[in-house]
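Re: the 220-residue chain
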Amino acid sequence: MTVKRYLHPRLGEITVRRGRLSRHIKLSVHPVNGISISVPWILSMTRAQKFIEDKEEWILQMQRKQEKKRAEESVRLGPGRGIKLIAGEIIFYSESEFQKLGLDATIIQALKKEAKKYLPDRTADIAQRLGFNPGKITVRNNRSNWGSCSRSGNISLNIHLMRLSAELADFIIIHELCHLKHRDHGPQFHLLLNSLCDGKEREFNRLLRKERPQVSFIWE
């Protein structure tokens, strides 16, 4: 597979993937990963760009919908109105407190600091209680997932877990620990996960669908 990127004058950066196994053209407009198109190997770059041009209005429509959804899901802050965390709260009383880095960067910085203090120790405690032996535990500002477990047993957790309830964050931690025994999401994985969260896997997943691994912050 070859991957090329080009800058469209109206749509921005577009990723074009040409694969030998591809049989059809697949176009994706993702709120995080942007615009991408997968095409058969024999299709030229010119044809791929022509396809994008033909779909331009549809792409713009999808981008507008996603932008509206992002705005609706944004966390709105104001003087004294903060973000509640598992342990503590992030509060700004004036714009001067985040003008140097900007609002989003300042909050991410604060979330990382709190996540490093809380999540690795919390994961180690849960792992010991449940009989798991994870490798290295790290925290990251992931864009699209709450956590991951590598084949070597290292666990990475999203700093945005700090914005969730303690119970829901624990569920995600247990989810990743279960991957130490079951790599996929097959029946055995779900059986283990459900047993370790008191039969509440479906309930926790329902609550998690209302949250987003990453959101925008707006100062009002």
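The chain has two domains: 2-73, 76-219.
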